[in-house]
Amino acid sequence: MPKITDSGMPLSVLAELMLNRGGTEAISPLIKRDKRAPNVRSLYNIPYTKDIENPLLQFDWHCPASVAETVYFASAPTVFYIHGGAWSSADKKFYSRLSKDFAEQGYIVINMNFRLMPEYDLAVHFQDCVNCIKFCLDKLTLFGIDKNNIFLAGDSSGAHMASLIGAQASANKLKLDCTIVGLLLYYGIYDLNNLQSVKFRICNKLHQGFVKTQGENLLNFYKNYSTTTYITKKFPPTFITAGKTDGLSSESELLISLLEKNGTKISPLIFPKTRKDARHAFINLLNNARAEALLKMFEFMKSNLNIK
């Protein structure tokens, strides 16, 4: 779908106008279907800032067909997904299949892009993700979002960002007008002080980059952008998974230990070293580790919904 519609309007603006005038039936021409996911409806490349031409400031919306085909979108529990890629690579398009897996289970998914290092620093990355969430929360009716049932999810650096946003919100360091009922974390890093010591191929290089850009502010920077800094008794319930064959698994084990001591409700899934299918990035592979993790994650999500 083009970033801008033929009318010259951003897709989100046009969709909102059409929705207000004629309900979801009016915007059906904008909604895409996927033969491989027949129970899902999607909108692509929706800008969440005034910079409507920048593909890194856009998101995709995936929705259960049963929600999308009501007269006005019924609200549904919502997942905000933040992709991995060492804060410096990858794209939301690589997570369309995963997003549709969520939608097939009854969840709306906001699969977001954001500006990347090295052109932009981690502060911009963080703020882009927050801006996307706030933009969508400001348009609950348009996107069918149930603000009382929000999950933040991500893999690798995306897991770091999802956990950091959730942690700061729960510690009242970040204001989000919603209830975060769970974090869904795949093989992330949660204490940036460990970048130089974890046994993962790119982490020491990233650390050296931060040393150059942050200088004397490095320790403060790591503290401010580490999830572990913001663990309180209000930390959201958390599903967390990794494989011990992954050099970053020590970070998941660290967060599990801290959250257990904190009394946080957690659902951990750490695969042993014998599980070669649980290597880094397994969420993007169609293998047994991915299937097992999704099954346990969906059980966790269902058990944490705010049901009235």
Q: Note the main sheet.
A: 9 strands, mixed
Number of helical segments with 4 or more residues: 10
What do we call the CATH topology? Rossmann fold
Uncertain regions spanning at least 5 consecutive residues: 1-7
Arithmetic mean of pLDDT: 91
What would you say the CATH architecture is? 3-Layer(aba) Sandwich
Q: What is the number of independent domains?
A: 1
What Rg is obtained from the alpha carbons, in whole angstroms? 19 Å
Strand arrangement in the largest pleated sheet? 1-2-3-5-4-6-7-8-9
State the end-to-end CA separation.
37 Å
Short description:
The protein is 35% helix and 20% strand. The chain has 308 residues and is an alpha/beta fold. Strand 1 (32-34) and strand 2 (37-47) form a beta hairpin.
Characterization of this structure:
With 308 residues, the chain is an alpha/beta fold. It has one domain: 3-Layer(aba) Sandwich (Rossmann fold), CATH 3.40.50.1820. It contains ten helices and nine strands. It has helices spanning 11-22, 65-68, 96-104, 122-137, 140-143, 157-170, 203-214, 218-224, 249-262, 288-303, and strands at 32-34, 37-47, 58-64, 76-82, 108-112, 145-155, 180-186, 238-243, 266-271. A nine-stranded mixed beta sheet has the order 1-2-3-5-4-6-7-8-9, with helices on both faces. The longest helix is centred in the middle third of the chain and has 16 residues, at 122-137. The chain is globular.
